[in-house]
Amino acid sequence: GAVVSQHPSWVICKSGTSVKIECRSLDFQATTMFWYRQFPKQSLMLMATSNEGSKATYEQGVEKDKFLINHASLTLSTLTVTSAHPEDSSFYICSARDQQDRGETQYFGPGTRLLVL
Amino acid sequence: AQSVTQLDSHVSVSEGTPVLLRCNYSSSYSPSLFWYVQHPNKGLQLLLKYTSAATLVKGINGFEAEFKKSETSFHLTKPSAHMSDAAEYFCVVSVAGGYQKVTFGTGTKLQVIP
Fold this sequence. Notes:
The complex is a heterodimer. Chain A has strands at residues 4-7, 10-13, 19-25, 32-38, 44-51, 57-58, 67-73, 76-81, 90-97, 106-108, 112-116. By secondary structure, chain A is mostly beta strands. In chain A, strands 2, 4, 5, 6, 9, 10 and 11 form a 7-stranded mixed sheet that branches. In chain A, a hairpin with a 5-residue loop joins strand 4 and strand 5. Chain B is built from no helices and 12 strands. The A-B interface holds A 4, 6, 32, 34, 42-44, 46, 49, 57, 91, 93, 95, 97, 103-111, 113 and B 32, 34, 36, 41-46, 49, 51, 90, 92, 94, 96, 99-100, 102, 104-107.
C-alpha cells in the first residue's frame, strides 16, 4: 500500500519550453501533496505544499509563476515548470500524505529527472 | 522553529558489522520523526517513523531507531550491515497543526565494505 507514482521519470527539453510532471497516489487519497527539488549530493528542498482544491503554498524563494502546481483531485497533483532554463535542471520528487494517516507520514514518488538543454 | 542535524555526512562500515546513523532534532512542539532511505536515482522509501507511541521504533530491513527526548536524538541502528544497505539516509522531523512543517536533514551516505 501507499504507492506514489511520478510521470515522466526522465525528461529532456529545450530551453524555453514548459514541462509538466505528474504525481499520483495509486492506492490512497491524498489531500496534501508536496513537491521537492534535490540537487546532486544534497538533501531535499521543499518547494511547495499542494492542497486538493486550493492554491498551493510555496516556500520562500520559490517562484509561483515559474513552478505552477495544480492539485485537482485527491490522487493527482501536477508541477509545471514554465519556460524552463538550464538552471531548472534537477531531480524533482513529490510526496503524498495519506488522508487517513494521522501520523503525518509522507510517501514519496520515484522522482523525475529534468534536464534542460 | 525546528531543525534536524545529521551528524555524519558519510559513514563507512564493514558488511556484517553494526550501523549507527546519528540524528538530532529541535522542535518547539511534539514532533513526528522519520527515517527515509534513498538509493541512487530513486525516490525515498520510508524506513520507520516515530509518532509519540513507543520510543523504540522498528522499521523495515532490520533497522530500528530510538526516540530520546532528553537527548533530542533519533539515531538509526541496524545490528548487521548488508551490502544492499548502501544508500543515502535522511532524518526528517515533522510538526502538524494546520500547515504541516517538514524539515529534512542533510543526509548521511552509508557505505558498506565487503
